[in-house]
Structure formats: structure tokens, C-alpha cells
Specification:
The protein has about 110 residues and is α/β, with parallel strands linked by helices. Helices cover about 40% and strands about 30% of the residues. The chain contains 3 helices and 5 strands; from the N terminus they run E-E-H-E-H-E-H-E. The protein has a 5-stranded mixed β-sheet with strand order 1-2-3-4-5.
């Protein structure tokens, strides 16, 4: 799994590429948690368009970041989610909690 990010004035975009499974989940959580500390006042956008596979561990990664941001009054959204990961999110009801968008909104 490869994770990169881009910082803008009002948002931080995290790009996830590869497989988000139990092997990559801890790395993904740590990366996002560190960015949440480094960028305390921005909206987070998760670009999942590069995911080739995701299991339930991906749910934990996204929900963990959501809880961290929510505690400090910040928001996040997911965009570009491929069909297979989207089915995992939908089965868990995550799109009812976190906005899922087709494309990034500025």
C-alpha cells in the first residue's frame, strides 16, 4: 500500500493506492493520525480511487480517522471509491455517517 498526501489551504487530500487490508491497516492509521496532528484545522479528503482491494480493515482505518477529526470539530469525505471497496463501506452503513463523493470538491 502506498499513501501520499497533498496539502491545500482548506483541505488535505490523502491518496491511497494498492490493497488496504489487515497488513496495511496499521500503517494507514498511523499515517492519517500523524497528519491529523500536523494539519489541525483543515478538512480531510480521502482519495480511494487507487485502491485495488479493501477488506473490513479499511473500515477501521476510515472510522478511526473520522473519530479523531470529529473530536476536534473537523470534517472529512471520501471520494473516488472503486466498486469493491464501496460495497464494503455500504454493507457497514458508512456512507450514512461519512460523505462519499464521486469527485473531490474544492
Amino acid at each position: 500500500m502506498q499513501i501520499t498526501h497533498e496539502s491545500y489551504e482548506d483541505r488535505l487530500v490523502l491518496h491511497y493506492c494498492g490493497e488496504l487490508d489487515h497488513h496495511a491497516a496499521r500503517q494507514a492509521m498511523d499515517y492519517a493520525e500523524n497528519l491529523a496532528v500536523l494539519y489541525p484545522s483543515v478538512r480531510f479528503m480521502l482519495d480511494l480511487s487507487g485502491l485495488t482491494f479493501m477488506d473490513s480493515s479499511g473500515l477501521a482505518v476510515v472510522l478511526n480517522l473520522y473519530r479523531i477529526l470529529q473530536r476536534s470539530g473537523r470534517t472529512m469525505a471520501v471520494y473516488g471509491c472503486p466498486k469493491q471497496p464501496l460495497r464494503v463501506f455500504q454493507a457497514a452503513g458508512i456512507p450514512k455517517i461519512i460523505p462519499f463523493e464521486e469527485e473531490v470538491t474544492c
